[in-house]
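Bump. Still looking for D-alanyl-D-alanine carboxypeptidase/D-alanyl-D-alanine-endopeptidase structure tokens.
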Amino acid sequence: MSFLLLFLTTQIAFSFTGVKAQTPVASASRPKSICPTELKSAVDVLINRPQFSRMRWGVLAKSLSSAQTLYSRDAEKYFTPASNAKLLTTAAALQQLGANFRIRTSVYQDSDGVLRVVGRGDPSLKNAHLTELAKQLRKLGISQVQQLIADDSYFQGESINPSWQWEDVQAYYGAPVNSLILNENAAVLSLLPQTIGQPLRLRWTEPTEAYRWQIENNSVTTQTDTPGSVEVSRDLKGPILRIQGQLAVNSQPDITAIAVFDPIENFLRHFRQSLAREGISVTKMFSGIGAKNVQEIAAVESPPLSQLLVEINVNSNNLYAEALLKTLAIKQPPEKNQTTADAGLKVLKTTLTQMGIAPTSYVLVDGSGLSRKNLISPEALVQVLQVMAKSPQAEIFRASLPVAGVNGTLKNRFLNTTAVGIVQAKTGSMNGVISLSGYINSPQYDPLIFSIMVNQSEQPASVVRQAMDEIVVLLTQLHRC
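Sorry for the wait, here they are.
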């Protein structure tokens, strides 16, 4: 589980993007089996409900083995995919880099007393890795560093996609993606009720963060059992944090996370602390590009790509997906004036074309799906799933997807239905957008692949997910007639 999820899943009252527990899909009133010839009318009844009249549905369901189409509605048209875009990113990365690929972070000795840390975009780098680097340096007899240089030049271009919305980039799920990422470039904080009428108390998981931010706290502690909600936002121009809302005096702490304002300052500050704990003092530290990487004296590596994919798809981690997209650029280094992200997108598109995915069936501008400029058809998603199911990496790819009622973003969905344990699918969600694409290991029918996408929805996300889940349950109940 990711660094942030270890904190965020402990909260009770609030989460930035956590999947809400859903009412189990009612299936007792329906037969436990359905003929393929009955599927279209059954799905149409769900989609054509009056409350869904203003939204767009795109649906495609096929047999994995025969490619027979079981249901289709606007499957060739473009939809905003949200995190379903991660299926394309992870499929291309697995094809290009291989399951055992790791991302290395190195420390070089440029000269006596001058150390340079070179990041290569490892999204899994945590404080524990800095401790490991510090221990390696101490074993070499290093006790003093005159200059500590953070080399953040591996990824070229902006660390934040210019098409992302401001309300997203201030939150942890829209954190900047640079070469030296630490703790997912996010700071975790808790808001705790005090006495009635007093503002909520802010507590940082990393205490030194308190010195980095100017706080504008307009929150309040309210009477016992009163409804509560809190909004934490970051200023556009500087490290100013604004807190609004209320919590009841007897409520649990509200835990959330925000994107750090300066990733390199964040990295250097934490690394200096790690070095100090190992008895290594640092005189001066700054960001810069040093000499050629001649003498590596310490290094740590990420988990293998197979594990990174699980974090991306099971937990829908945007930062991991964007780092992986930029990492793809090693297969075709950026041209002059080309950003690393654009080079990675070029490799991704070339890879998908080689896999047989029509270039006209999707438009991608990032690797995570956070941008609303992404467009993908259900047809393209189903095709990617089909190709990956027949590839040598099929088992690894499938293992990276959440399982209905079991883990990740599907842990609290499909409870008490025939879908539990046999549906593996990637979720996607943003305002007005809900998507779900994946596999069904049907017990009474062929294995299935499907994609369901909803755009331009004014309905609560829980209502749309409920209907979407009912469609998937119908697919799990298919049998030969």
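The two ends are 43 Å apart (CA to CA).

Edit: fixed formatting.
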